[in-house]
Amino acid sequence: MNLIEELYALQEKHGWLREEDLRALSDRINVPLYEIEGVSSFYPHFRKTPPGKLHVAACRDLSCHLAGGAAAIARLKGYCAGKKGVEFHETSCLGRCDSAPACAVNDEPMSLAQAEQCVKSMKPLPPAPSPSPRRWRCDDGEPYGVLRDVRKSGDVDSMIERIRKSGLRGMGGAGFPTGVKWDLVRKEKATPKYVVCNADESEPGTFKDRVILEELPHLVIEGIALGALAVGAKEAWIYIRHEYVRERKAIERALKTAPLDGLDLRVFVSPGGYILGEETALLEALEGKRGEPRNKPPYPGTHGLHGKPTLMNNVETFALVPRIARTGEHRYKFFSVSGDVAKPGVHEVEVGTTLRQLLDLCGGVKGHLKAFLPGGASTGFLPADKIDVVMDWKPLQEAGSALGSGAVVVVNDTRDMLDLARNLTAFFRNESCGKCVPCRVGTEKAVIMIDGRKPEDLALLPELNETLLQTSICGLGQAALTPVLSVLQRFKK
Fold this sequence. Notes:
Layout: H1 3-14, H2 19-29, H3 33-42, E1 54-59, H4 62-66, H5 69-80, E2 86-91, E3 103-105, E4 108-110, H6 112-121, H7 145-153, H8 156-166, H9 178-187, E5 194-199, H10 208-215, H11 217-231, E6 235-241, H12 245-257, E7 264-270, H13 279-286, E8 310-314, H14 315-327, E9 332-339, E10 345-350, H15 355-361, E11 369-373, E12 382-383, H16 393-399, E13 407-412, H17 417-431, H18 437-452, H19 455-458, H20 461-471, H21 475-479, H22 482-490
Parallel strand pairs: 1-2, 5-6, 5-8, 6-7, 9-13
Antiparallel strand pairs: 1-3, 3-4, 9-10, 11-12, 11-13
Helix pairs in contact: 5-6, 7-11, 8-9, 8-14, 10-12, 11-14, 17-18, 17-22, 18-20
């Protein structure tokens, strides 16, 4: 076990990290106590005080904010106040934007009313049953059939070429061509090689990976196994956020029957923090360190986990690989849709679908469309007149935004756009790891400037954004002001 896994084991045993246990751990694994303290204090999931019986959390981020999150937080906070054994705190996105405003008690997701009932009874709810899996078009109904065929033929190069020609890009946000990445890692000479699935889905508005993990775990596992076969890896990891308890159990059930053929595929539970979705911060955590981004280059494809070539993709990308590896066609993609729509949820649509068509699948807009985020918190708002934009990389870029993580947040014409931009900027401020000064200080200054709403301060945000773009270590700081700048540019009234 690495240091983080050791800390998890201690916390599960005692409920928190006691000083005497950390000292004993230091002696046992021969790691200085200051290093253990540095790691344990970095991650929000590790506790240094005894826990209450109930840990109640309410989301404060964009989709929940649109669904009356501020009032829900105030109500739940007041309900918890003074209750012995009850802890309450506001939290960043829980990945439950389709059931906003989202709450959780002891990491079990639930409605506001259910959370209040837990507090009233002082009993956590039992885990909710998994929903009946839907029929998804990317699933051909033959689990691991593509994996068996590729193993039998041994023609890995043709598989990678089909993925490359399909145009599949990483669906975690960056959009790097998947086939190119696989080929680069395959050609690296250093060994051992690793495969990592990034399931640390934590950006406001983004929850499609959660649904894929629960309903299509076999496709995710098959995609990872194909990636390992492609690059010559014998060890792989699924790095999943700790709030995704039900989804982790679905993956672990599927792993019991998966034909891994010698591939050591394990699940690593994140101790928390949006920054862990950044690929190099995630690798640091997998190595048992503080989850702070590395300077790049080098990139994970050449110097990843333990300094070795590492293939990293997100959940959706791996889930789409099996069908593409067989047919060579990238026909489908997933979108999370939340905000001011009749029926928030995850939708699988054909490549080339417009926003208008996607909204129709969600029962339409509640009210009149004013704006939308096409790709999650790190993309720019687009106005209603872009409703017929094709939801793909190039059209959205030409429209002035990005596909990002495929997280669509819909906004109607009753909303204060600067208020929404402030909510997103505050998210990035809250989730900054603090490693680099421009991000740590710049995001805080940006929130203060937005709060003041002084024209002369708002006019300085583009200059501040340029500083963050040029000097932040990772994409968090580089994208933090994108939403507010889009609002100032396109929604001046």
